[in-house]
């Protein structure tokens, strides 16, 4: 895609070649006759929150799923969009930059112009080197009203919001407000986030996650090779990715470092800082007994918030920030318990923990050097063990790294190029179908592009409501939001890591996926997470619909009594099982 | 190349493909009949040091250059090696790991086995993940004698030493000692060093430099994209590469960051820490005036030693280390002037400057966070300017990176794979020609492999002697050594950076070479340094020889009086000019 924004720059040969790359489109989006088929009205994964969500989003909750299909077979409930008036569409990058985001714009622009050359695409300058990055949110009444006025003034038919969980929650809120105000602008969300945490039944992965994990895995593998050569350092590598540990998990599966400490594991086991230190020290000691004095340990930037006592300390600090207490006075106002922990920590971490929280109320994770804290604590403990004579190996030596900025600015992988481009096209079809408050979706992503399924799901169907415990049984209910998905500790991806953890720890079975390739072997590699999880929710929903249609077709009035009886008894049993499984009490594991 | 060292590891698809990669050989090394042609006896680039060197290396100084050629044309002084007895060869990695080093072993092994399947290659376990990394040096009498005994016990025909300037200096010393002791083992050096500082008339570049610069440039470019997207940070990136700034210069030319501060520039201009800070601050201020609050600044790890007053401080600290003073007592014993500087510095840098020096007497450059020091000083100065009202822009914000370990463990680039493999083959031919104290050389490297010229040069011809000023006109003479080449501030590569410096600084003309590619565009890219310098010393030496031969052929006894007269007068003028240029006084710029 040509970009004429900014000064002319000299392109490398690879960049030139990449600008000529034409991403693929799945068959359903080729040509100008795309058929939209609506599924059933959507609910939400969390039945307990459904009421709250529907009350907050009266205009946009419960809308049906949409599938975009080739205009060939004739199916009930399907419509071919034949009207292609010129559209005016605005597009904005919200929140943090992520590789591949630009291709959403390209795909959208290409679809707009293919269907009607008179259509207009307006970019709001604000992330990314194409349009610049905007503020992190569109949330306050003031911000929402400003967006409403701008969209009305510019007579936009649609506003496309590209971003992660926060941005898409904001998109849903805008859609609802616009519908309420009878504003003609439809709001469409697109899942773009290197964190990989905008993930649910409809969204298999986010644009950028694939690239970032590949670049990080390349670097982690290089560090592993270095560790095995120098044989004298432990490398502590912190990875960008916000609260959830998806990036760390994926990178661990690509590069097989000795250890990967996941925030979700630490939170679930309620490990303290001291437990964690001890675990790492025990590993170092076990390796020393095999005469190994090197190793590579991954940790997610969100780890610091997953350690219960540190999280409590951070909550106190952020609370004091909220009360307007200045940084210099915070430490004196901490509770005795939090103060004890705070005073124990080394000065560099103290300074970082005191930073003002981010717009989503989390700590400034990219600025807190958790890897240095852990390396420091491990070194102290190893020295202590050495003094006491319980550790007899060589002196422990650590090197610390934070991999973040150097990955998220990468040229996007082929996967992310294609995925983003297809999502951009889908945005057009969402708009052409007149849908509001939807996110563009592509499923069956682990397969080649020609097998991808394109659709759209209401953002409200991805929302959950968090209950915050206030202690002693009291709790408050949060606002409905698209929350970041955490690692499923019962899921297949985590299981794969667990199964191999002992081998990775002791045997140095490092694997090197190499640098991101654009041609030849490796260029079509998909993330391990995507391949292992083997999701195809949208495909399965369609399959269910086909079963229901088939039953309806077979059991038409006039069919035999026996067939009807068999159908009734089978359906009674199915509905019974499903009613039990869907009852709120069954889903007792309420999201935190 | 198959390696069965260590536990079996799962290879990625790219790794599998790379293990199948067969590096190319230039025509002169194909087949088993390689012709060796000897040039004139070698001298050294530093005429003033020639005597010292020849006295230290009586057996190995002044040996001729060797060229390896196809066994076709008949030329005087050429011999075809027809004897291929089984050889016993030892190989060792000395000093720090560098991508591609393994291919030297592969090339050597392949050449040994092609010429005689009964030959044996022994690897000394000691850098790198194949053999492990050895100690940094083989230098003390004890170390040299141990090497001698081992080579004699193992009845080695040759010992191949793979490494940088230090290791090759050691190789020359071993060769001399072995010759003196009538030991049959020939010593061969191979230029492998990511620093790119083993560079002279015979050596155009080192194995590993290409890969490391490409990986670093990829990451720098990603950070540039991030800078341009976030528009709020200055990124200070320190690059590995020891005393010289070759890596930083090459990376700057590949990725076009806003600034690259080279140690050689700072040393030549005698810039103080405060000058340097001021320069960066002025740049930040100039950019702020164009409403730019982001930027990327490269600095080499050796920068800290290039700043005169910091170098003096380090010398004092290292002197005190040498006297056995413990770290806790050093600061109290500094001279008043050094102490004033030391006390001014932030605590983290104090701790790092106090570290024990490396085996080559330099500071522990990889451990000294010069980028953080500079960012800290710039931040202080910008805050001061803001307070004084001379700077009216936004608050200055920095993010610091050290790129080193994550680059030197990379899969080697195609260039480094080929270069190392060819060097390995040359080692065999050096041995077969019975040469001792030589380094394997390939020249004309900027061209495709089939144009590469293969040869060997005595390591002593690459040596220089440094004179250390002791103040007040007194000086001492150091030992002859292969010294690290610094950036030639009058050279073409530096000129290219200078010409573009203003544009890079202000216009954000970032260039992204992308990740290291193994197929398609970019996979055959050579380093900018190599292409710009356009060296072909060995080719030119051969050309000179051809001119001399031609003169001899034309001016044979029996030629006309006129021809003889013309020849005499022309040659008199040539020899006059060259005598003047080669006199020690002409080369008054003695290396530091």
UniProtKB/TrEMBL annotation, chains A, B:
Any one GO BP annotation for this protein: response to glucose
Keyword Zinc: no
Predominant cellular place of this UniProt entry's protein: cytoplasm
GO terms of molecular function: 6-phosphofructokinase activity; ATP binding; diphosphate-fructose-6-phosphate 1-phosphotransferase activity; metal ion binding
Cofactor needs: Mg(2+)
Regulation: Allosterically activated by fructose 2,6-bisphosphate.
Pfam families (UniProt xref): PFK
Assembly with partners or alone: Tetramer of two alpha (regulatory) and two beta (catalytic) chains.
Family: Belongs to the phosphofructokinase type A (PFKA) family. PPi-dependent PFK group II subfamily. Clade 'Long' sub-subfamily.
Protein name as it appears in the record: Pyrophosphate--fructose 6-phosphate 1-phosphotransferase subunit alpha
């Amino acid at each position: 895609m040509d970009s004429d924004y900014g000064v002319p720059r000299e392109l490398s040969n690879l960049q030139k070649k990449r600008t000529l790359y034409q991403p693929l489109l799945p068959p359903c989006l080729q040509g100008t006759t795309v058929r939209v088929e609506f599924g059933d009205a959507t609910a939400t994964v969390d039945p307990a929150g459904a009421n709250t969500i529907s009350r907050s989003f009266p205009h946009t909750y419960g809308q049906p799923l949409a599938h975009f299909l080739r205009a060939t077979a004739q199916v009930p409930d399907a419509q071919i969009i034949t009207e292609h008036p010129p559209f005016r569409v605005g597009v904005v990058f919200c929140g943090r930059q992520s590789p591949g985001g630009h291709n959403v714009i390209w795909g959208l622009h290409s679809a707009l112009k293919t269907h009607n050359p008179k259509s207009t695409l307006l970019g709001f300058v604000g992330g990314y080197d194409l349009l610049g990055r905007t503020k992190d949110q569109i949330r306050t009444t003031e911000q929402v009203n400003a967006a409403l006025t701008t969209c009305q003034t510019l007579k936009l038919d649609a506003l496309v919001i590209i971003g992660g969980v926060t941005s898409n929650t904001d998109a849903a809120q805008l859609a609802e407000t616009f519908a309420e105000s009878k504003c003609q602008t439809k709001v469409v969300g697109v899942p773009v986030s290197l964190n990989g945490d905008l993930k649910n039944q409809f969204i298999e992965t986010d644009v950028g996650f694939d690239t970032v994990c590949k670049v990080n895995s390349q670097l982690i593998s290089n560090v592993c090779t270095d560790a095995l050569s120098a044989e004298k350092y432990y490398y502590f590598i912190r990875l960008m990715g916000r609260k959830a540990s998806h990036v760390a998990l994926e990178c661990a599966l690509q590069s097989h470092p000795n250890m990967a400490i996941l925030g979700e594991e630490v939170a679930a086991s309620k490990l303290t800082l001291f437990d964690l230190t001890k675990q790492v020290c025990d590993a170092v000691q076990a390796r020393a007994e095999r005469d190994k004095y090197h190793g590579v340990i991954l940790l997610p930037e969100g780890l610091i918030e997953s350690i219960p006592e540190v999280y409590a300390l951070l909550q106190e600090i952020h609370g004091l920030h909220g009360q307007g207490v200045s940084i210099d006075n915070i430490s004196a106002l901490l509770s005795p318990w939090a103060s004890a922990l705070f005073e124990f920590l080394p000065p560099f971490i103290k300074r970082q923990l005191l930073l003002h929280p981010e717009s989503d109320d989390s700590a400034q994770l990219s600025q807190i050097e958790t890897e240095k804290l852990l390396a420091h604590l491990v070194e102290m403990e190893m020295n202590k063990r050495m003094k006491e004579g319980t550790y007899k190996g060589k002196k422990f030596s650590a090197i610390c790294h934070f991999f973040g900025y150097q990955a998220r600015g990468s040229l996007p992988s082929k996967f992310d190029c294609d995925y983003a481009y297809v999502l951009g096209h889908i945005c057009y079809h969402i708009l052409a179908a007149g849908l509001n408050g939807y996110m563009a979706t592509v499923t069956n992503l682990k397969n080649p592009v020609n097998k991808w399924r394109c659709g759209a799901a209401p953002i409200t169907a991805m929302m959950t409501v968090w209950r915050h415990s206030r202690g002693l049984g009291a709790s408050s209910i949060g606002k409905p939001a698209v929350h970041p998905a955490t690692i499923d500790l019962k899921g297949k991806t985590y299981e794969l890591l667990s199964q191999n953890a002992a081998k990775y720890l002791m045997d140095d079975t490092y694997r090197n996926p190499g640098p991101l390739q654009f041609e030849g072997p490796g260029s079509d590699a998909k993330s391990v997470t995507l391949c292992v999880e083997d999701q195809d929710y949208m495909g399965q929903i369609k399959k269910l619909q086909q079963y229901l249609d088939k039953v309806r077709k077979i059991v038409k009035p006039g069919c035999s009594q026996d067939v009807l009886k068999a159908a009734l008894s089978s359906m009674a049993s199915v509905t019974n099982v499903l009613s039990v499984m869907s009852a709120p009490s069954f889903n007792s594991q309420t999201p935190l």
